[in-house]
Specification:
Length: 551
């Protein structure tokens, strides 16, 4: 059978654009600490840092206020964040010791849970594996959590800049000095248009990359500095919908098996978000083997299954979105997460525990560890990699790494297929990760060949199931049509490769027209799936992309 090797068609990361050895503009905005990305990691980090300064001042320390900035590419906070989500509240509790759980922006406690193995027409309830126990946790919308954290941050005097994507790192030697933002108002040709907004430089003594999954500046910094990991980072794509329902969902549901082929890793989730709302999603590892696999379409099929249909029928699709998840786990963590004037936090560093599908509390906690390290380093007036190395130690000694180490091979075991992987993962759980404890090596997702073949036809009904065009509408994406493309397509893209990209992208950005690839760049919702398997994603005009409200 013919196959496509994705990495053959993938362009290099444009390092010359992403790492600029240039003096910052004379008009640069000066910050002490700059967080790139207002997700849970960046906002928790900024809040912790501002609180540390206030506490020190209250205790009589003469230190001046710090200028703390948070850049965010979305037009408003929360619009580019997407998660499940079942949240472990421990990082919220540590960040806000004076608040109680009821004060946090959660939707409801987890009311009960069930795990099912699906076949095309049936379901078998399985005992809940220990890694998937969620008692004591809460369901939540990450967009709402981010908006709430943003208000707390503003209340502490932190400068939040929504609509300002960081386009490049500004460096001097190995020292990161800040960032340059992306220009706005460019015409499709790349020329300035009527609403042109030139890039802005922001300098900082420490820049924290909290860009989330498949962070572009994080990738560039690691490549530039030669920071590797034992295994390459691998990713999954999650496609998610929020539904208004007629009746409440009484438990958190996870499923394995159908509609995924047995040689793909993944599963679905259905979470209650209050009395009349649910979050539904399907997550699939991008090391799958069939070029025609289409996660958006698999989610549409899933909704027709007898386990899901009754929950959704008669309801209304409110929102749709997609995002990748770093799934490489412990062995894919960067050797170091600090550089001169730079720290990596959250998904950018890969702090996700895949068997429990958790990243939010790790992201927040890593932001808080970064803040504590920066606070100490600034007091010593030293921001070299050595001065910031306390962050790596804090992470290595923390529950983040302990949790990820315990489950280090569970995801990786599934490269041999669902049944062998499930068997091995079960034994790993029983032995606390000791059995099959040696590193399972993994290729990068783009190095896994995809077998070509016809896609199974699927026609959405427009009510329960939706096309990609309708889905993008439900993401709130209203990016102007005249924006220049931010996607870099590689070489030798045949009709078959174009077909493959059209299936990878949940938002219908890529289309095969004859034997050519057509790119509808404004449709992009920044999920980064093709950055992993095909054309490169780069930052574009602030405020472009989705406008999630309750993802
Ligand atoms: C489908 C799915 C289900 C999940 N379910 C759960 C769950 O149930 N529980 C759980 O704990 N975790 C879950 N996760 C994982 C969790 O969502 C992430 O681990 C978490 O959001 C990471 O937080 P972060 O702050 O690192 O990144 P993000 O939340 O992604 O935030 C990064 C921010 O940076 C911004 N940004 C990116 N690039 C730039 C740039 N160049 N300039 C400016 N801003 C930029 C982005 O717009 C975004 O706002 C799930 C993830 C997915 C995709
Ligand atoms: S083009 Fe955009 S929406 Fe499509 S896969 Fe790539 S990042 Fe996701």
């Amino acid at each position: 059978m013919a196959s496509i090797l994705p990495e053959r068609h993938q362009p290099e990361l444009p390092l010359e654009r992403l790492v600029l050895s240039e003096a910052p503009d004379k008009e640069a905005i000066e910050m002490d600490v700059l967080f790139v990305g207002a997700g849970p990691a960046g906002l928790a980090g900024a809040i912790e840092l501002a609180q540390l300064v206030k506490k020190a001042q209250a205790a009589g320390d003469t230190m001046a206020d710090l200028n703390i900035g948070v850049l965010e590419k979305a037009g408003s906070l929360g619009e580019h964040n997407l998660s499940g989500a079942v949240v472990n509240p421990r990082a919220f509790r540590e960040l806000f010791p004076d608040l109680i759980d009821a004060d946090f922006p959660f939707r409801q406690p987890v009311p009960g849970e069930a795990v099912y193995l699906l076949t095309a027409g049936g379901s078998l309830r399985l005992p809940t594996p220990p890694t998937m126990h969620n008692a004591g946790f809460y369901t939540a919308s990450i967009s709402e959590m981010v908006r709430w954290l943003g208000e707390k941050a503003e209340g502490l005097g932190i400068n939040i800049f929504p609509g300002f994507p960081a386009d490049a790192l500004l460096v001097e030697g190995k020292q990161v000095k800040g960032v340059r933002t992306t220009a706005g108002g460019l015409e499709r040709s790349g020329e300035p248009g009527g609403n042109y907004m030139p890039p802005t430089d922001l300098t900082a003594r420490v820049t924290v990359l909290s860009e989330g999954t498949r962070g572009t500046l994080g990738q560039a910094w690691r490549q530039w500095q030669g920071v590797t990991s034992e295994n390459p980072q691998i990713f999954a794509l999650g496609v998610k919908e929020v539904w208004k329902t007629k009746q409440p969902l009484e438990k958190v549901i996870h499923t394995l098996g159908w509609p995924l082929p047995t040689d793909a890793f993944g599963g679905s989730f259905l979470y209650p978000l209050g009395p009349d709302m649910v979050a539904l999603g399907l997550v699939v590892g991008l090391d799958y083997h069939e070029a025609s696999l289409d996660v958006h379409e698999l989610l549409q099929r899933l909704k027709l299954h007898p386990l899901f249909r009754p929950h959704l029928e008669g309801g209304e699709l409110l929102e749709w979105g997609a995002k990748t998840i770093p799934e490489g786990g412990y062995y894919a963590l960067p050797q170091r997460r600090v550089g001169d004037g730079l720290i990596l936090v959250g998904d950018t560093a890969g702090f996700v525990d895949v068997p429990s599908l958790k990243g939010i509390h790790y992201a927040m906690q890593s932001g808080m560890y970064a803040a504590r390290t920066i606070f100490e380093a600034l007091k010593r007036d030293e921001v070299s990699a050595g001065a910031l190395s306390g962050y790596d130690k804090r992470i290595d000694d923390s529950y983040i790494v302990a949790d990820m180490k315990r489950t280090r091979n569970m995801r990786l075991a599934f490269k041999d297929g669902f049944f062998a992987g499930g068997f091995k993962a079960g034994l790993m759980t029983i032995t606390g990760g000791r059995l099959f404890g040696g590193r399972i090596t993994m290729p990068a997702d783009a190095a896994v060949p995809k077998q070509t073949g016809p896609a199974a036809p699927f026609t959405p009904d427009g009510t329960l199931t939706v096309s990609k065009v309708d889905a993008v509408f439900k993401s709130g994406n209203a990016t102007r049509d005249t924006i220049p493309t931010h996607l870099i397509v590689g070489k030798d893209v045949s009709g078959e490769v174009a077909d493959f990209y059209s299936h990878v992208c949940p938002a219908g950005v890529y289309e095969r027209v004859g034997d050519e690839l057509r790119v509808n760049a404004p449709n992009c919702i920044d999920c980064k799936a093709t950055d992993v398997l095909g054309p490169r994603w780069t930052p574009r005009e602030g405020g472009s992309g989705p406008k999630y409200r309750s993802m």
